[in-house]
Specification:
It is an enzyme of class 2 (transferase). By secondary structure, the protein is an alpha/beta fold. 42% of the residues lie in helices and 19% in strands. The chain is built from 29 helices and 22 strands.
C-alpha cells in the first residue's frame, strides 16, 4: 500500500463515519516533513484548512509554534500536523487534537517508534530539575505513547526513510493502516436549525443557531436564568459547544434587557461566549455596542449588556447584576465560586475532560455549597460532539494516552475507610507505569482534587526524577495520595545564581526563600515539598490526609531537612497545615490573577538544619508582617491573616513581655477609662501581633478580625464597621474597649487590675 492509498482510505473512512483518523509518520524529521506534504496533497484538503504545528518556519500552510498550539482550541481544521521532533509536550498533543474536524486527519511526525522512548528531548527537559541531570529522567510516558499508538483503533503508522544522498523520501512503508472497518456509517449531521423554543423565553434565533439538538437542549436549560434564584450547572467534554451555548444564553438574556456578567480564569476562556452572543444580537438587530478587547462589553438597544470581569472583580459585582455566567468554573477556587452565588441567577460551565486541565473536581468541591444556597439547581450535560461523531477513535486514543478520563475508585469501594483500616504504601514510578488501574486511580484522585491537573502532570508523575508518591490504601484501593517533590541541596554556584535572580526549575520553595526573601543559604538544606495531596471525596474530613502526612514525615524525616508546601491561602487550608505541624514562612504580596488568592509557603523541620531554616524564616515573617499589613497586604482577608500568623507559631519570647507598666495603663485606659485607641496604636499593634501569633481564645472571631482590619491594616472605622456588620461606627469603636478589657483581664496583671479598680 502506498502512502497516497493509505491517506485516501483513511480520509474516505473518516468522512463516511464523521470521525477523525490519526496518521503517524515515523522516521527522520526531514523525511516526515516531506511525507506530510504528500499527505496533504493525497488527502485533497483545502490548504487553508491545514495547520502545521512546528518550530520550523517557511511553510505555505498555516503554522503555529508548539507553544502557541492553544490558539487552535475552538477552531476547526481539516488536518493538523504536529511535528513532535522539537518542543513536544503532552499538553500540545491534547490541544492540537481537539481542533481536527470530523472527516479530518491528525498527523504526527515522530522519530522511528522503536527509538521514540529515547527521543523527544523536550519531554526530558520539562521534567529534569536540579540537582538531577537529564539522564535521571525516565521514559515511561514515551513507552506509553508508543504502546497506545501501535494498539489503538483508528491509528495508522507509516515508516518514512530518506536516502543519505537525496533530499526526498526514499521509501514509505505502511506498518498499520488504522482502518476500523465500521459497520455503521455516521455522515455529518446537518445544522440543527430547529425553531422550537422549547417553551422558553429565549428567541427562536438562539435555537436556530445551535449546531446539535444536544446544544439546543442546553440553551433551553440555561433559559432558567431569566428568573431569579436559579442556578444552572453545564458540564461537557471538550468540543461539545459548551461556551457557544453559554454565549447564546448570554445574548438572549441581554436581548431581554438583562445585565449579564461573564467571568472565567482569563478572557481567552470566555471569548467564544462573546463571539456567539454578538453574532446573535447582531442578527436580531439589537446590538448597540460591540465588544472591544480592552474592556469586553456588549450592549443592546433593549438596555441589556454583557460584560467580562475577572473572578475577583465578578465576586465584588455579583449582587449588582441580574446574571453571572462562569466559564471554566472548575479552574476557579471554591471560595470565589461561592461568592458568585450572591448573584440573583448564576450559571457554572465547566469542561469535564479538558486538554489543559479538568473540571471533574468542580462537582466534588463545590456541589455541597451550591446545594446549600438559595438557588434552585438545574444540571445539564452536553454529550454530542460538535465537530465529529460520538465514539471518535482519536478522542478515545487521546483520553487513553493522557488519562483525561481517569477516575478514582468508586465511592462504594472506599466509603468505609478509616485511619485505622488503611495501609501506607510507597508507589514507585515503575509500579504506576506497569499497573494501568493503579495509575488511573492515583491520577484520577489528583484530577478530582485539583482544578489545574494537565497532561504534562502525567509525564511528571511517571518520569520526573525528583518525585516520590505515597498513598493510603483501603482493601487494595487508593483512598489518599501525596506527590512529593525533592527540592534544595543545590551547590554554591547554583545558589549564588538563584540569589542573583536566575530561575531554577523544580525548586519552588528554595527559589522564593532565596530570590525574594534574600536568603542565599536557603537552597542548601534538602527537603520535600508536598506538591499535591488528595483524599477520596467519599472519605473527606476523616483524618486520612493528616495520617498520610504523618506517615510521610515519619519516613522522610530521617533523611531530609524539611517538608514544605505552597498553596493558595484560605483559612481552612492554613488551619489544616498548621494542625499538621507546618509553620508559615511567607505570604505572597500579590494575589493570583485567576483565583484572587495569595500564596502561602509553610515548612515543617525534620533536622537541625531544617529547624534553623524554619525558625529563621518564621522569625522574619513575624517581623515583616505588621509593616506589610499596613501596606501591600492591606486588603488581605483578615481570616487569612489570622491563619497565617497562628501557623507561624508562638515566638520564642512572648511579645506581651515587651509591654511595660505604662503600656498596660494605656490599654486599661481604653478598656475602663477615658483613653482612646488613637492615642497609642503602636501598643495595640504589639498586643494584636502577640495574640494572633498565639491565639488563646479570649476574643471572639469578630473581635480578632477587628484587630486585623483596624489595628494591623489601618482601615478607617467606617469601613471596618460596615465590613464586620456592626450596627454603627460608634459601636465598632466601643468594641475596641471590650478587646482592651479582655486583654487586661487575661494578661494585664497587677497594673491593669489597679487601673480597673481606679475607674470602677
Amino acid at each position: 500500500m502506498t502512502l497516497a492509498e493509505l491517506v485516501g482510505d483513511l480520509r474516505a473512512e473518516a468522512r463516511r463515519t464523521n470521525e477523525r483518523r490519526l496518521l503517524v509518520l515515523a522516521g527522520p524529521r526531514e523525511a516526515g516533513i516531506d511525507a506530510a506534504y504528500s499527505v496533504i496533497e493525497s488527502a485533497e484538503v483545502d490548504p487553508d484548512a491545514v495547520s502545521f504545528v512546528t518550530t520550523r518556519e517557511g511553510f505555505r500552510f498555516h503554522r503555529l509554534p508548539p507553544a502557541g498550539a492553544g490558539d487552535l482550541l475552538g477552531t476547526t481544521r481539516e488536518m493538523v500536523i504536529l511535528d513532535c521532533h522539537e518542543e513536544f509536550s503532552a499538553n500540545t498533543l491534547g490541544q492540537v487534537a481537539g481542533a481536527v474536524d470530523g472527516g479530518g486527519l491528525l498527523v504526527l511526525l515522530t522519530p522511528p517508534l522503536a527509538e521514540l522512548p529515547d527521543q523527544l528531548d523536550a519531554l526530558v527537559d520539562r521534567v529534569a530539575v536540579p540537582p538531577f541531570d537529564r539522564s535521571a529522567v525516565g521514559n515511561r510516558f514515551r513507552h506509553r505513547l508508543v504502546e497506545t499508538l501501535t494498539t489503538h483503533p483508528g491509528v495508522a503508522i507509516a515508516t518514512v526513510e530518506t536516502a543519505a544522498d537525496t533530499d526526498g523520501p526514499l521509501s514509505v512503508s505502511v506498518d498499520r493502516d488504522g482502518l476500523t472497518q465500521p459497520t455503521v456509517e455516521q455522515p455529518p449531521k446537518p445544522n440543527q436549525r430547529s425553531t422550537d423554543r422549547h417553551g422558553t423565553p429565549f428567541p427562536t434565533a438562539a435555537f436556530a443557531a445551535c449546531l446539535t439538538d444536544d446544544q439546543a437542549r442546553a440553551v433551553a436549560h440555561l433559559s432558567a436564568l431569566s428568573e431569579p434564584d436559579q442556578a444552572v450547572v453545564l458540564e461537557a467534554n471538550r468540543g461539545r459547544g459548551k461556551s457557544s451555548a453559554a454565549g447564546l444564553a448570554a445574548g438572549s438574556l441581554a436581548a431581554a434587557g438583562r445585565d449579564v456578567l461573564v467571568t472565567a480564569p482569563a478572557f481567552e476562556n470566555a471569548a467564544p461566549i462573546f463571539t456567539r452572543a454578538e453574532r446573535l444580537l447582531d442578527g436580531l438587530d439589537l446590538l448597540s455596542t460591540a465588544a472591544n478587547t480592552d474592556l469586553p462589553q456588549l450592549t443592546t438597544t433593549t438596555g441589556g449588556r454583557i460584560r467580562f470581569r475577572t473572578p475577583p472583580e465578578a465576586a465584588a459585582l455579583a449582587e449588582a447584576v441580574d446574571v453571572v455566567i462562569t466559564d471554566e468554573a472548575a479552574a476557579i477556587p471554591v471560595e470565589r465560586l461561592e461568592s458568585l452565588l450572591a448573584a440573583p441567577a448564576v450559571a457554572f460551565c465547566t469542561t469535564v475532560h479538558g486538554y489543559e486541565g479538568t473540571g471533574r473536581g468542580f462537582a466534588v468541591r463545590f456541589r455541597d455549597r451550591l446545594a446549600e444556597s438559595r438557588h434552585t439547581v438545574d444540571d445539564v450535560e452536553l454529550q454530542e460532539p460538535i465537530r465529529y461523531a460520538r465514539g471518535d477513535p482519536v478522542e478515545s486514543w487521546l483520553f487513553r494516552t493522557l488519562l483525561l478520563d481517569a477516575q478514582p475508585p468508586v465511592d462504594q469501594l472506599v466509603a468505609e475507610a478509616t485511619p485505622q483500616s488503611v495501609t501506607y504504601r510507597k508507589l514507585t514510578q515503575d509500579e504506576l507505569a506497569d499497573d494501568e488501574q493503579l495509575l488511573r486511580s492515583v491520577f484520577g484522585l489528583l484530577v478530582v482534587a485539583h482544578y489545574r491537573t494537565e497532561p504534562t502532570d502525567l509525564v511528571r508523575l511517571l518520569d520526573a526524577p525528583n518525585l516520590e508518591v505515597r498513598a493510603l490504601e483501603y482493601d487494595g484501593h487508593v483512598v489518599s495520595v501525596a506527590v512529593l517533590a525533592r527540592e534544595g541541596g543545590l551547590d554554591a554556584d547554583l545558589r549564588a545564581a538563584m540569589y542573583e535572580g536566575q530561575r531554577v526549575r523544580g525548586n519552588m520553595l528554595p527559589d522564593v526563600l532565596t530570590s525574594q526573601l534574600r536568603d542565599e543559604a536557603a537552597a542548601e538544606p534538602v527537603g520535600y515539598r508536598v506538591m499535591r495531596i488528595a483524599t477520596h471525596h467519599a472519605v473527606r474530613s476523616s483524618g486520612l490526609g493528616s495520617q498520610l502526612l504523618d506517615r510521610c514525615y515519619a519516613e522522610f524525616g530521617d533523611r531530609v531537612d524539611w517538608l514544605g508546601v505552597g498553596f493558595g491561602a484560605t483559612p481552612q487550608l492554613l488551619d489544616f497545615w498548621r494542625a499538621n505541624g507546618y509553620r508559615t514562612v511567607h505570604l505572597s504580596i500579590t494575589s493570583n490573577d485567576r483565583s484572587g488568592e495569595h500564596s502561602a509557603l509553610m515548612l515543617r523541620p525534620c533536622s537541625a538544619a531544617g529547624r534553623e531554616l524554619t525558625d529563621r524564616h518564621v522569625g522574619w515573617f513575624r517581623d515583616r508582617t505588621p509593616a506589610m499589613l499596613s501596606d501591600v497586604l492591606s486588603d488581605l482577608d483578615p481570616d487569612i491573616v489570622r491563619g497565617g500568623l497562628a501557623a507561624a507559631g508562638p515566638p520564642e519570647a512572648d511579645r506581651l513581655g515587651e509591654l511595660d507598666d505604662r503600656d498596660w495603663r494605656v490599654i486599661a485606659g481604653v478598656g475602663y477609662g477615658p483613653g482612646t485607641y488613637e492615642a497609642a496604636p503602636h501598643v495595640f499593634r504589639t498586643v494584636a501581633m502577640a495574640y494572633l501569633i498565639n491565639p488563646t481564645g479570649e476574643l471572639s472571631d469578630r473581635q480578632a478580625r477587628l484587630l486585623v482590619r483596624k489595628v494591623l491594616q489601618g482601615e478607617p472605622w467606617e469601613s471596618v464597621a460596615s465590613e464586620l456588620d456592626f450596627p454603627s461606627t460608634s459601636q465598632c469603636m466601643r468594641e475596641m474597649g471590650a478587646i482592651a478589657r479582655a486583654f487586661c483581664k487575661a494578661f494585664g496583671g497587677d497594673v491593669a487590675a489597679a487601673e480597673r479598680e481606679r475607674y470602677s
